[in-house]
Amino acid sequence: MPATDLAPAPEAPRAPLTKKALTADHPTWCPGCGDFAVLASFYKVLEKLNYPQEKIVTFAGIGCSSRFPYFVNTHGGHYIHGRALPFAAGISLGRDDLHVFVFGGDGDGFSIGGNHLVHTARKNPRLTYVIMDNSVYGLTKKQTSPTSPLGFKSKTDPWGAFDQPINPMRTLINSGATFVARSHATQVNHMVEMMLRASQHDGFSVVEILSECVEFYPGAFDNSIPRKGGSFQTIELKKHDGTPEDEERHDPTDELAAFKLALEPWPARFGVYYENKARKTKNALEQDLIATTREKTKHATDLELLSKTFARMR
Amino acid sequence: MSASVRPKPYLEPQYCKGCLRCIEACPRDCITPGSAINPATGLVPVELHLENCNGCTLCLQACPEPYGLRLETDRAGLEGEFVLEDPAKLFGEKCVPNHSEGDLPDDRRALPDCEPLVLKGTYATAIGALLAGCRHVFGYPITPSTEGAELMARILPKLNGHFVHAVSEVAAVNMMYGAGGAGLPCMTFTSSPGFSLMLEGVSYMIGAEVPGVFVNMMRGGPGLGNIAPEQTDIKLACRGLGHGNTHAIVLTPSTPQEMLDLAIDAFALAFRYRNPVILLGDGYLGQMTGKVRLPASMIRPGLPAWAVWGDRAHRHNLISSIALAEADLEDHNEHLNRKYAAITACEQRVDCYRCRDAEVLVVACNTPARMAKGAVETARENGVKAGLFRPITLWPFPIDALAEIMPGVRRIVVVEAGPGQLEDELRLALSHANIAPPPIDHVRRCGGNLPAQDEILATLLAREEVLS
Ligand SMILES: Cc1ncc(C[n+]2csc(CCOP(=O)(O)OP(=O)(O)O)c2C)c(N)n1
Ligand code: SF4
Ligand code: SF4
Ligand code: SF4
Ligand SMILES: [Mg+2]
Fold this sequence. Notes:
The complex is a heterodimer. Chain A is an alpha/beta fold. Helices cover 34% and strands 13% of the residues of chain A. In chain A, strands 2-1-3-4-6-5-7 form a 7-stranded mixed β-sheet, with helices on both faces. In chain A, helix 7 links the parallel strand 5 (179-184) and strand 6 (204-210). Chain B is built from 15 helices and 20 strands. Chain B is globular and about 75 Å long. The interface between A and B is medium-sized, with 24 and 24 residues. Magnesium ion binds next to helix 4 of chain A. Thiamine diphosphate (TPP) sits between chains A (62-65, 81, 105-108, 132, 134, 136-140, 145) and B (140-142, 169, 193-194, 197).
């Protein structure tokens, strides 16, 4: 019996999801932390998606940002530093009926979890991963993260960081993630749009959100905040309307074009970089494999199959 | 307890990051945002005004820093001098020679006399390592041990060394394998979850006989647990260093001074035996500040003959833990066993405090030993002949010294911040030595709580029959 058979039967329609129903513990973030806005936007996304509340799962690794699951009233898990993705992939593959969201920081995702990130992207399980990138280790109080810029002075790089930072968009596209987008915690509407698109994508979808750590890296993202003199440049997507302007617009299915966008100088642009709707999810491929092998067994019962196997071992 | 007698909080400004959560939590407006930058941290700690404080502890619960806000009553036992009874006992002559033929020997340089420094435990360890000649530090941040690595990051470039913030503890331990294989004294600072991750590499280092020093400031577990002090990696360090036939010397300091002294010792031992050494502290010890005397000399390390030298003469040196033929691997394990036996014979260290005539023997190490010592003092004042047996090496367990004391001991009380891992080591050692123990009681706390002096004293006084 597949695990999904364990899910309870559908019930009568009920009231739409509200922020009130979705809030849990009061966030323990520092006042002014960018993560508050990500949380508020996520509530909006869930309101719009209006999934049955018990079908939503929110996971995280370890970090300030990874405290997320405590603040969302859904099923949740808080896991090992850097290992939230395999954990979430396990749930997603075992329970295809659930909507799986993972939240975490740049250190969690790109440093200790970097290997998992690459291979989760390659395997393409159906889940949405939101990286709250503050370009620093917040929880452990200011060490260099893989996205800290060159020259960043931290407690582990008191002389200024000199390891080449990771370019998250480039890394994600290159690893084979099938939906890659980027947003900014000061732009609520944009964040909602990106997270919404990501959660509607059938596959491994990632949104990197620049989210300022006011405690240990204040001002990190000022040059993409208009109110602070920066500029917030979005990616215009192709409308396929045949107009000359459309030539200039970005086609997110074009991997090479996505790469070019990713290589634009910091702070680069915000929006959907890459989207691949053609690749099947790991969930679907597993189901295909099960279907063909079950076909071959002529849909014998577990007991029949096991008895046959044991008979051969006698 | 009435409001008037409830203990009030106090602030350790150097551990406050000024996040202001406590201000929100306090129902009596006792806490205000600070105005002065703390020079030690560069952050702005809050200020406490406790006239209206009712000791509700809501601020403590809100504070994310394990050492930021504490209760006044927790100060007892944690402050004040805690001096070794007889340092010579800990650092005396050892039976295995430090150098074999072909080694480029260490060079010692005298240090100028100076006043004792006032250092926290993690810093003391870092200074000790520097004086022992360590210039290569690999780590991944984890509270409560990161500060040692952070100090190294600041100092090492000036000393022609480097600190590498690795991508994870797994990367860090393998960097140590590399640097250690090149014969360089190297180390890491970590805490329990990070130590778990490193164990694969530790097993390989033991197999390939690569030296390296692991500083593990133990925190609450299992899993993520918390960042407060515990002693629940004793089992890992003494019995579970990855897979296979593994052992490593496990040193358990109780003061910043010992953090420094034992760090120096740890490097000597790691190279003497070509084996990792575990410096096992607890979260509190790393944060504790104390007076630290520097040694008379510092070391410029030589290069052992077995290491990767990078010259023709040593071209055949190979660092590996693989031995495919069964006979070879058995030989190798027997070689390791001889090494473990030599360590067990030569390297047991213990601090015995008022043990000579002790009828009630308290066994404790790390921070809980400090509370235990206070309890032993008070028990003596109450007429109980108590003594403190404080292992400095948990592996090898100092059973020889214990065996000498045991005939007079009528009762043992094991004090630990954990559910019995220290007691297991004690019982195992007694059992191997064929010593039938008297009744063993214990004071155990977990979750980041340390055994309090009063609790220990109550247990010490609990059995009437030992009152003289
Ligand atoms: C195995 C392990 N190593 C180290 C840590 C300590 N640690 C907790 S969070 C963190 C990094 C936090 O940075 P990031 O992922 O960027 O999250 P942020 O706090 O910035 O949101 C580290 C190193 C840990 N919990 N587990
Ligand atoms: S330390 Fe930084 S990332 Fe963490 S809660 Fe505070 S502002 Fe946010
Ligand atoms: S103990 Fe209670 S009243 Fe006192 S400072 Fe803390 S929160 Fe305020
Ligand atoms: S909650 Fe703790 S760290 Fe934050 S301001 Fe208060 S004392 Fe400082
Ligand atoms: Mg971060």
